[in-house]
Amino acid sequence: AFSTTPSRSYDLSKLTLVGRLGKDPELRTTKTEKEYVAYTVATTNYPPPPPNPDGSRAESATTWHHIISFHPGQNQFLRGLAKGTRVYVEANFELRDPEVGADPASPQGQRQIFLRHGTNTLFV
Fold first, then answer.
1. Label partner for 108 (CA 20 to 30 A): which of 32, 57, 99, 100?
2. pTM to 2 decimals?
3. Domains, the chain
């Protein structure tokens, strides 16, 4: 179903994650002295992948999502959470192509997804 509310002047790409914190959230500072919190959420796909032709089934894979938050109120909350806490996160994401001429083995030479924390984080 589509919303019947008036359209907005921007598009949106959002990712919803339900998983566990991979480590305690860390307070960091940008080059311009703006504080942010970086944290990692682990998710495991369920159900597991379909069976192989021989009938065996591969294990579900864990995916690690690296997220940053620039929201002061949320940052205070995030810093109080510990590794292993189950969380629900809404994050905006941006897909960036590799930098031209960068070494393909380096992060700059690979396609990257950047996740920016939205306004919701709940622990479950």
1. 32
2. 0.71
3. 15-46+60-117 (2.40.50.140)
